[in-house]
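Why do we care about 3D structure at all? Because function follows from shape, and shape follows, mostly, from sequence. That is the central idea of this module. The next example makes it concrete: a single protein chain, its amino acid sequence, and then its structure expressed as tokens.
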Amino acid sequence: MAGKSGSTPATYSPSLSGQKKKRPPVLADSNWVRPDGRTLHQCRPAFLRTGAVNSASGSAYAEFGNTKVIVSVFGPRESKKAMMYSNSGRLNCNVSYATFATHVRGQMPETKDISSMLHKALEGAIILKSFPKTTVDVFALVLESGGSDLPVITTCASLALADAGIMLYDMVTSVSVSCLGKNLLIDPLSEEESYQDGSLMITCMPSRNEVTQMTVTGEWSTPKINEAMQLCIDACSKLGKIMRSCLKEAASITQD
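And the structure:
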């Protein structure tokens, strides 16, 4: 199992769904099929692409089922005078939702909190000393909110940073799990998040075997939280391989 990074302890935060808890369906056994046809421990297919925004230093597009995100990275560029004497660079993160991102207008998550969590997830993976006295800005736009928004945003942002040539200790991947009764559902949909009893999100650097952030909501038993962590870590490792393949493919196209 991956070790935790000493600088980023686990955090406890309110649900990001912004929706009232609904009555859950009856889960008879582990073979119960989810609304999109997946099994409990099956992630959605991930589609990733770099170079989505020509005007940006780097960018990426991510599509995990109905969750669709585009991230643009600008910089490194000159920072304010207060940063001119700093030996390290600065990271700024901003997350926003398109007006048509959710099924019900006005039911948007608190983007300030999500932006802050994105910053915490990415900052430990960036070699800030590689761009002193300058700033890197990350702008994430959720085109469609289909569940597990923050993990998808984080993964897409990491890919965009790599596309921009920002020096990283490792790629950052993120996966969440919802607890529903005795069952754990990985990579939950919005519908599943709305009636979850608890959630756990892991952000990690898979090649370094380090967990950089863990967010937990609800009440968990020790066995369940260990199981959920392992599910997330295994999925993060697989997602990291997909991200590296995406970068290699983009590099080969550029060379051709």
